[in-house]
């Protein structure tokens, strides 16, 4: 099979370093991974091409890079799944982290964030005589999130990190869940309170990029949502994020349908009256444009609301 | 082609022009709709932060109601589509969980057997109405208009719940529609990224930065308008664009059209009936390119 790899290059040792694309034509076996292709280029065409890999079996997490616009492990990605005969495959370093050279990124900021969430077990009381034990069910529940290989692929494609480098990010938040949900850990409240702060669990947009790209099925965003649920259940101090979830739930419970004005008023509350006032120009502009909902700005409950309310009650009982 | 129509809260609330424009176009395409007036909100992913089982119970109820009518569901919101697709995926792939949810529905006399399909209007246009029928209804081809697609996250990810494996063209559906309507597709990096709406109340700065990035990018790639199948994206990209431009100290002026508004334009429908006068960023100069006044 014939293909072209279009690779983003960057050499910090150039006089005026800037990134550029370079194309390599390649004869490959259809079963080759993109990593095989890159290694072939390095060994037979251009030994200056820099990349990082080790296990070649999707275990070590070192070959994360962007292939055709999305981050993934190069060793786990077959060429044939990316392009047909004669098509070009674009290979770039991961996003949201500094590039050291060509396809190699600096993982230091990634590890700093993992360290931020204190990724170790913090039990309380006297140590047991043998081991700290946990039920098989609780470990089973954690096995998915424990399969994270720290490749940084989710961090590369995170929407929030693109605009805000302070966000803790999907990998560290998933790792935080691994400890928050561990029955042997006693620091749950401190952990949740830490994540309740700005740049923490409420800053995620729920865009699902991290779920889509994670090569290990960790589902970081699902863990973030589970952290939020745990935070709400533990009554973390109220923030715009937690109030938004609480108020939204309350509105659906009473009306079955969302009331945007009510959501905004109650989310900001009197504590954030400035934010509410700041919305007035937009609201006025909407009114001027005749952007008024057919049923008026505040909805009546939907027909059959009693069934919705019963479900709310029952789900709580059977939890 | 009859569907149980799930309009979603936003087309009944802050984006009335979306509901209005869908009402204009669907009857002309041979589609019949039975609006689901007793179905609740999908939870939009927010209710699920409080309790994921609650969201699934509400959605299972909606699916059971549609199943009772023997109709597939039609949505007009990327978020509704995504949240319902994910719920349906969980329910239909985990028999025990479906049983658990059915236990909750029993008192209302409902059971969900797992047969309901959920389709966004965007997919219906291509997969059910079909390109040929669409072309027959185009009386005002949008030639000369450069349109940037903006999907919104929930109609692109996760691909397994959205059945992209069985319908691989769904990932390019918006581009396809733009082409069929005669406009030119403007490709730009942000088309499948997040508009930032979900964090508007939580981290306004980040949210507005996302609005500015995507609208500015699309405009600098030459777009006259942006089109979206998601009213929540519309709320942020249209409603917050002015604030976003101010925050990022730049100037942006990109009209954001709902998918049925763009379709209605190509079908020669009247501007007011499509609610185009209600969009906050005026599409006036873009419309003049296809000889339409506002
Ligand atoms: S879902 Fe949240 S954490 Fe995951 S990529 Fe999107 S913003 Fe980042
Ligand atoms: S969560 Fe997935 S993508 Fe993120 S670092 Fe872990 S294995 Fe990699
Ligand atoms: S747009 Fe959001 S809030 Fe409205 S119906 Fe859809 S999911 Fe519910
Ligand atoms: S782009 Fe943002 S608002 Fe639109 S569907 Fe995605 S998350 Fe929701
Ligand atoms: S080389 Fe180890 S994960 Fe790819």
Provide a short characterization of the protein structure:
Chain A has 319 residues and is of the alpha+beta class. Chain A has 15 helices and seven strands.
Topology:
The complex is a heterodimer of chains A (319) and B (294).
Chain A: E1 2-9, E2 20-27, H1 34-44, E3 64-67, E4 70-73, H2 79-82, E5 88-92, E6 99-101, E7 104-105, H3 108-116, H4 136-146, H5 153-156, H6 159-163, H7 170-180, H8 188-195, H9 209-213, H10 220-233, H11 240-255, H12 260-268, H13 273-278, H14 280-288, H15 305-318
Parallel strand pairs in A: 1-5
Antiparallel strand pairs in A: 1-2, 3-4, 3-5, 6-7
Chain B: E1 2-6, H1 16-25, E2 32-35, H2 47-50, H3 52-69, E3 73-75, H4 78-93, H5 95-105, E4 118-120, H6 121-129, H7 131-137, E5 146-149, H8 173-180, E6 184-185, H9 204-220, E7 225-228, H10 231-239, H11 241-247, E8 256-258, H12 259-266, H13 284-288
Parallel strand pairs in B: 1-2, 1-3, 3-4, 5-6, 5-7, 7-8
Helix pairs in contact in B: 1-12, 3-4, 3-5, 4-5, 6-7, 6-8, 9-11
The structure holds iron/sulfur cluster (4 copies) and FE2/S2 (inorganic) cluster.
One iron/sulfur cluster (SF4) sits between chains B (78-79, 152-154, 194-195, 197-198, 230, 232-233) and A (205-207).
Structure ligands = iron/sulfur cluster, FE2/S2 (inorganic) cluster
SSE string of chain A, helices as H and strands as E: EEHEEHEEEHHHHHHHHHHHHH
Output mean pLDDT of chain A. 92
SSE class of chain A: alpha+beta
Q: Provide mean pLDDT of chain B, rounded.
A: 96
Helix-and-strand structural type of chain B: alpha/beta
Cross-sheet strand order for the largest sheet of chain A? 2-1-5-3-4
């Amino acid at each position: 099979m014939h293909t072209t790899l279009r690779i983003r290059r960057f050499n910090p040792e150039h006089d005026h370093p800037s990134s550029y694309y370079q194309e390599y034509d390649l004869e490959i076996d259809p079963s080759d991974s993109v990593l095989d292709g890159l290694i072939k280029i390095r060994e037979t065409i251009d030994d200056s091409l820099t990349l990082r890999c080790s296990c070649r079996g999707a275990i070590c997490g070192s070959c994360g890079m962007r292939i055709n616009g999305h981050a993934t492990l190069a060793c786990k990605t077959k060429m044939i799944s990316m392009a047909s005969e004669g098509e070009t495959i674009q290979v770039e370093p991961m996003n949201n982290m500094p590039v050291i050279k060509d396809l190699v990124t600096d993982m230091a900021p990634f590890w700093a964030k993992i360290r931020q969430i204190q990724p170790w077990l913090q039990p309380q009381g006297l140590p047991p005589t043998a081991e700290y034990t946990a039920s098989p069910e609780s470990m089973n529940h954690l096995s998915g999130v424990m399969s994270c290989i720290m490749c940084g692929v989710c961090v590369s494609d995170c929407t929030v990190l693109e605009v805000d480098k302070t966000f803790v990010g999907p990998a560290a938040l998933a790792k935080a869940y691994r400890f928050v949900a561990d029955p042997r850990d006693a620091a749950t409240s401190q952990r949740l309170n830490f994540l309740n702060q700005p740049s923490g669990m409420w800053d995620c947009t729920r865009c699902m990029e991290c779920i889509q790209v994670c090569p290990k099925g960790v589902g970081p965003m699902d863990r973030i949502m589970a952290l939020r649920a745990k935070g709400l259940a533990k009554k973390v101090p109220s923030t715009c994020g937690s109030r938004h979830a609480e108020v939204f739930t309350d509105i659906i419970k009473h009306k079955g349908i969302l009331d945007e004005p009510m959501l905004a008023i109650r989310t900001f509350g009197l504590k954030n009256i400035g934010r509410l006032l700041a919305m007035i120009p937009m609201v006025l502009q909407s009114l001027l444009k005749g952007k008024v909902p057919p049923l008026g700005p505040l909805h009546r409950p939907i027909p059959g609301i009693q069934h919705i309310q019963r479900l709310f009650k029952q789900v709580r009982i059977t939890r | 082609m009859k569907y149980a129509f799930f309009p979603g809260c936003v087309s009944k609330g802050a984006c009335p022009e979306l509901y209005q424009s869908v009402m204009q176009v669907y009857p002309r395409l041979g589609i019949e709709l039975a609006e689901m007036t007793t179905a609740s909100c999908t939870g939009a992913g927010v209710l699920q932060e409080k309790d994921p089982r609650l969201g699934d119970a509400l959605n299972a109820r909606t699916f059971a109601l549609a199943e009772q009518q023997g109709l597939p569901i039609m949505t007009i919101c990327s978020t509704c589509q995504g949240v319902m697709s994910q719920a349906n995926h969980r329910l239909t792939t985990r028999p025990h969980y479906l049983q658990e949810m059915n236990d909750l529905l029993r008192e209302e006399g409902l059971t969900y057997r797992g047969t309901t399909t959920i389709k966004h209007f965007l997919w219906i246009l291509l997969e059910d109405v079909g390109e040929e029928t669409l072309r027959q209804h185009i009386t005002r081809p949008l030639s000369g208009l450069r349109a940037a697609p903006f999907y919104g996250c929930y109609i692109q990810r996760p691909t397994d719940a959205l059945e992209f494996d069985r319908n691989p063209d769904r990932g390019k559906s918006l581009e396809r529609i733009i082409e069929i309507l005669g406009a030119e597709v403007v490709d730009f990096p942000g088309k499948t990224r997040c508009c930032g709406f979900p964090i508007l109340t939580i981290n306004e700065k980040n949210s507005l930065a996302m609005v500015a990035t995507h609208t500015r990018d699309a405009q600098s790639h030459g777009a006259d308008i942006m089109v979206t199948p998601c009213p929540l994206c519309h709320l942020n990209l249209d409603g917050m664009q002015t604030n976003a431009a101010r925050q990022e100290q730049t100037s942006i002026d990109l009209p954001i059209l709902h998918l049925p508004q763009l379709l209605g334009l190509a079908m020669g429908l009247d501007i007011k009936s499509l609610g185009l006068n209600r969009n906050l960023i005026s599409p006036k100069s873009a419309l003049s390119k296809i000889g339409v006044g506002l």
